[in-house]
Amino acid sequence: MKTKYLFLIFMILLSCDLEEVNIDPNKPKEVPLSGLLAGAEASLVYAYAADYSVKTSVFVQHISGIGGFAVNDDRYNLATSAFDGAWGKTYTNVLTELKLLDELATERSAPHYSGVARILRALAVATLTSAYGDIPYSQALNPDNLAPSYDSQESVYAAVQQLLSEGIDLLGQTSVLSPGNDDLIFKGNIDRWRAVAWTLKARYALHLSKRNPTQAATNALSYLYDGGIGGTYRGIASNEGDFEFVFGTANNQASPWYTQNAGRPGWYGMAYFFVSLLNGDPDNGVPVDPRRAAFANPMPPPAPANTYKGAKAGQPEGASNIVGTATYYGRANSPVSVVSYAESKFIELEARFILDPNDAGLQDLLEQAVTASFDKVNSPSDPFATGAKQAEYIASRAQLSGDPDDKLETIMTQKYIALFLNPEAWTDYRRTGYPQLEPAQGGSTALNPNGEIPRRFPYPNTEVLQNANVPTKESNLQEPRLWWDVAQ
User: Fold this and answer.
1) Quick one: residue 269, left, alpha or beta (phi over 0 = left, psi -120 to 50 = alpha)?
2) Rounded Cα gap, residues 24 and 333, in angstroms
3) 20, 256, 272, 469: most buried by Cβ count inside 10 Å?
4) Per-residue pLDDT tens for 150-184?
5) Threshold 0.85, pTM exceeds
6) If you classify domain 3-251+334-485 with CATH, what class do you get?
């Protein structure tokens, strides 16, 4: 467990009912489920934001590496050892903790803890496989097997869906013990965990849209709606149901993005492509995105007021920063958004678009999704984010028109904006080709020979050296393509 969580988890343990978890405060006799859950949640979300989000957000040009070693990230000039952290922490910290939590909860007749553990396991495993492809799964986490075999990505996705289904079923059972304040995400709200699980099932169904778009879309809608469209909606139904982890203001509790920028100031700034979307072109009738001030800070003087600038990929220069008291994701106590109501609406929107590009309900769904994003991050004090400005933006920039390719580009570009800093934006780009990004200047490197935008994480150096079962020792940022990244 990371050092930065120790104070947080320590305080949680002190607040636990010691009699309920059957431990002597001076001599613990068994591991409390509460401490395991809180620790696993913190480890998972921190890895999601720090080890996956930083690199994937550079790849999709949400942000740009403009100083220090981050310039290498921006030009895809990376070594395989740069991917050790995401791999190792997910297995060693996150999945090991969740496995223990699940096993102990089963022993103690606490299916609600098991249900949450399996939902979190599914999220962790899916994040791994969507970055690396084939991964150890069925033989993983066995301390006696230091060289587990690799499961195909196809089988891993099936396992993810199974874990989510099991989690939903377990949450429906009677439980002797249930999460409460030790659940740092939903405070034990089982209905919200179920909604997240159904939304994750839809997310991972849609990941397979390149393999079989009709089946992927049909499955996604069957998860969001009981019985499909027209049935009971069971995904995340409002911003209040978002899977977010809110960090604290103390140094050992601060959010990953704040910590990254506080420890390495000037390394990362906003990317030119993303800032251009946010800036619009007011002189020619293209309004400013109402979320601009929520995502970034304006350039300091002597730049004119409300000047937002991004750095072009591979060309480090001064750029707007995301850290500040006014930005949604850049404060010490900012949340990490993992899966949201806005995403659930975009999943439904894309799935229905795949099945019928002329579906009469698509425009309304797009407006619901964009509005959910506005409501989540905007400050009422921002003059560019008033109700009138939001309506102007939707009327100008969130309208479905043209041929199916035009509509898909609008859908995915709006989702890309709403999912700022979320690794899902990288998956969407690889699935759909949108938004249309230009590769970084100088991006042809040893690990990225064709100079194109990366499509995978290479297997980490530690795994290549220690596990003879690695599918290929020659993986790079492009090859071999992930199973779902190849059209059938």
Assistant:
1) beta
2) 33
3) 256
4) 999 999 999 999 999 999 999 999 999 999 999 99
5) yes
6) mainly alpha
